[in-house]
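Below is how a single chain appears once it has passed through the pipeline. First comes the sequence as given, then the structure the pipeline wrote out for it. We keep one example in the README because the format questions we get most often are answered faster by looking than by reading.
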Amino acid sequence: MPRLRKPEKLRAADTALVTLIRTTLGVANSAHFGGKLPELPVYLSGRFKSTMAWLWTHDDLCGCGKRVPAGTPEYFVFSRAWVARATTDELYSLSCHELVHLWQAVHGDDTNHGKHFQEKAAELGLSPFWCRS
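Resulting structure:
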């Protein structure tokens, strides 16, 4: 798991990337989840070295003082550098992957790559593990 930090402030140049990510997440949510998953804030990180994206949940933010159930989804963070060079298909595939994690959180499951993640990914015709083609 990436080190816990507050999300980075968006840079002026990030607006187009964040809009692209939000649009891609929305299309994937509609296509694979009937648009039923909640929309979450999207942030970019310049710190991710090997992580392409992460769904932060309340468990990741423990000690923040919020009174919400554990596992409550909070926001997505995508690697700024990775998104900037990703193809449309790669971004869509990664967005689907992250939405499966969101589906897990919404249904009270751990947001990992375990049995439930693999089953849901297979049900949607997605690879259970994302990889750059």
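Confidence is low (pLDDT under 50) at residues 64-68.

See the next section for the split statistics.
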